[in-house]
Structures are given as structure tokens and as C-alpha cells.
Amino acid sequence: MGPALEDALLAAGYDDVTAESLTHPVHPYPARLHPATAARLIAIVMDTAGRGAAVLDPFCGSGTVLIEARAAGWRALGVDLNPLAVRLARVKTWTAPVPRRRLARELGRRIAGDVMLAGREARRAGATAPPLRGPAGFDPNARQRRIGKWFSPHVRRELESIMAAIDEVAVDDAEVAEVLTMALSGILYKVSHRRSDTDPTWVERAVARGAAARLFGDRVEMIVAGLEDLARVPGLMPQVIEADARALAKLDLPPVMGIVTSPPYAGTYDYAEQHRLRFDFFGIRHRAFDDGELAPRRAFLSNSAAATTRWRADLGDAVGALVSALAPGGLAALVVGDSIAGKVCFADEDLRSVLDDRVDVVAWAWQERQKLGPERHLFPRDRPKREHIIVLHRR
Ligand SMILES: C[S@@+](CC[C@H](N)C(=O)[O-])C[C@H]1O[C@@H](n2cnc3c(N)ncnc32)[C@H](O)[C@@H]1O
């Protein structure tokens, strides 16, 4: 298994074809697992599994493992506490007959065309004020306060018009409306004044009139094309559940033969913050995620000692739950990375410290990662910063 595991790590550096395939590139998502790594890890953990066996990713994020499992013909189950991730992973693995996909494409084109046309007419009439939309159950004024500064007025007008058209589609066809919504989510930051998903700095960004609508239309095309490729392999649509990975037992899932997952790296990301503008724009409730996100950066910045204690307990709970979900003889591949979370965290040591006697570590591979900024001084000179894959076997 050793060389195959090393190749799973190295493939991220050379296999661009897999990365660009299927629905992988349709939406940004920080710290996505590389699709080529996911594909290889699935092959490793499912090597001896029989037909109909399932792969689980309890931190499925944007659905990379689910897409690759679905493409390889396995049943796939995904769990994530981020409500946007769950919606995105469902759309990226949407398994529907040809006419349904065709409808999504046609509606995407029509909405993009209508909004561009309406923008031109509004310009002639000299209209500038963006309309205030109110997702059900959200105060439009509070929403305006949160998102107002992030979009130029003409961009906001296009985005709101697109979303109003999607709301109309949703009345009769929530499934297709969801594909359109995730297409809009995929371009939202590109046309905003937010520098990037991971950097909330306000930046000046000139976005041409009509560009948001055009990008939206293109994104719908991209999703549908990816879904068409995915549909070439017959298979069931993966099941994606919004839940806390520490509480997998409550979901009553059937035991799985394989797990491939990448839990959050301690103190590295802040998913709730990274998606906040999307949450506010689409009116997505996220309280449970704010409270339950594992090892977010914000927790270590506010009280490092408390966050470290909580991280150890949370990691133990999450790994314990994941091991319980594994059938006897099953394999779990975990991708984890060293990080700075108050102090240096060596992810392999953290992980090994929470394992119990239900599992054996049967393989371990790692590769060195570049130390960035202060990491250069904080990591010991004689020890690299590494990303690891650890494979567990359930007794
Ligand atoms: C490294 S990312 C996984 C990315 C995913 N492999 C992909 O390719 O998109 C870690 C994920 O853990 C999720 N997460 C954080 N805390 C969680 C919790 N308590 N339960 C379930 N998911 C959680 C985050 O929302 C994020 O999607």
C-alpha cells in the first residue's frame, strides 16, 4: 500500500486532468482535497470491497470524495456541518435524467440573457438603486447592512435579479433552482469587493455591466457539462447530510467499508467566516456551524489554550465516531496537515494520540509543505511541516 499512498499525495502535483474533470472546478472551496488524491485513496480503501459497498466522507466539504466515489461506481455518503457545503456537494453530484439537466441549462441561459437585457434597459432609463430582496425569514434591512458594501450597485442589481428569477423557478422546481443557486454562489466572490474566499479584505474591483449575468450563465453551463460527464457512469446519487461529524452515530448510517476524509487542520481555516457573504446573500442559517466548526482559526485567536483543549476533545470524538462507522475489516484514509494553532501541531501525532484499540495504523505517507510567514520561525528547524495520509484498519 505504501507506494500507492505516496502516489496519492504526489498526484496532486501532476494530475491536472482529474482536477479539471466532472464537477470539480465549478465552485471555490478552501482546502479542497485534490480530486486526484481522492480518487486514489478511494481505490486504496475500496480495494477488497464488494459491489454495492459504500464510501463515507464525514467532512465532505464541497464533495470531492463523493464525486470521485460516484464516478468509480461506489455508493457514497457525505456529512458536513457547513450548510453551504452540503448544498454544493448535492448539486455537484446531482444524478438526474437528461431532460432535467437540459432544463437547468436552458433556464440558466434564459435568466442570464433576461438579466443582461434588463440591465441595458435600466441603464437607458437611468435607474441606479439596487432592489432590496428579502429571502424568506430574513430582515431585508439587516441583510442590506451586511452585504451592501460588498457589491457595486450595477452588480448587485444583476445578482438580485438573477436570484429573484431563481426564486420563481424554485416555486415549482426546487431541485433545478438549487443547481442555479450554486452556480450563482460559484461566481459571487468573483464579482464582489471581497479579495477572495480566504481573504475578507475589501478591494476595488471593476466589474463590467452584464459580467455577473454572463458569468452566471457560463457557470450553469459548466455545472451541467460536469454533471453530464458524471452521468456516464451509472450509479446512485450520493446521500449528503448536514450534521456534526462528532455525532455520526445519531445518523444511524449502515457500516461502511471505506472512509476517505480530510478533517479541518487545527487553527488553519475559518469556514464560517469564509462563507459569511454567501450565507448573508442567500439567507442561509448557520448558527449550528458557527458553534460546532472544528478547530477554527478564530477560536485559537480568541483563546488559544481553551481552543487547544477543545480541539483535542473534538478530534477524539470525531475520530471515535468515524471508527464506529467503519465495518470490521474496513479501511479509513485520513488526510491531515501540520499547522500552527497557538503552538506547532504535528497532525500525525495528534491523530495517533486519539486512536483506540479498535484500529491499527496500516500505512502512513507524508510530503513536506512549504512553511509560510511566521511558520518559518515557529516550526523546529530540524522538522519539516508536513501533510500526512494515515490509513486505519478496523479490527
Ligand atoms: C478540509 S475541509 C474538507 C474539504 C473537502 N474534502 C473538499 O474537498 O471539499 C474540512 C471540512 O470540515 C467541515 N467541518 C468543520 N467542522 C465540522 C463538524 N463539526 N462536523 C462536520 N463537518 C465539519 C468544514 O465545513 C469543511 O468542509
Molecular structure report:
By secondary structure, this protein is of the alpha/beta class. 49% of the residues lie in helices and 15% in strands. Strands 3-2-1-4-5-9-8 form a 7-stranded mixed beta sheet. Strands 6-7 form a two-stranded antiparallel ribbon. Helix 4 (64-71) links the parallel strand 1 (54-57) and strand 2 (75-80). The model has no long low-confidence stretch (mean pLDDT 94).
Could you list some keywords that capture this structure?
single chain, 395 residues, alpha/beta, Rossmann fold, 2 domains, seven-stranded mixed β-sheet, two-stranded antiparallel sheet, 17 helices, 9 strands, 15% strand, globular, binds S-adenosylmethionine
Brief overview:
By secondary structure, this protein is of the alpha/beta class. The chain has helices spanning 2-14, 16-19, 35-45, 64-71, 83-92, 98-125, 140-147, 153-172, 174-188, 211-230, 271-274, 276-282, 287-292, 297-302, 304-325, 347-353, 375-378; strands at residues 54-57, 75-80, 239-242, 256-261, 326-337, 339-341, 343-345, 359-369, 385-394.
Strand content: 5-15%
* Sheet with the most strands: spatial strand order: 3-2-1-4-5-9-8
Portion of residues in helices?
40-55%
Radius of gyration: 22 Å
Strand count:
9
Number of domains: 2
Secondary-structure class: alpha/beta
Fold-level CATH name of the largest domain = Rossmann fold
Helical run tally: 17
CATH superfamily of the largest domain: Vaccinia Virus protein VP39
Quaternary form: single chain
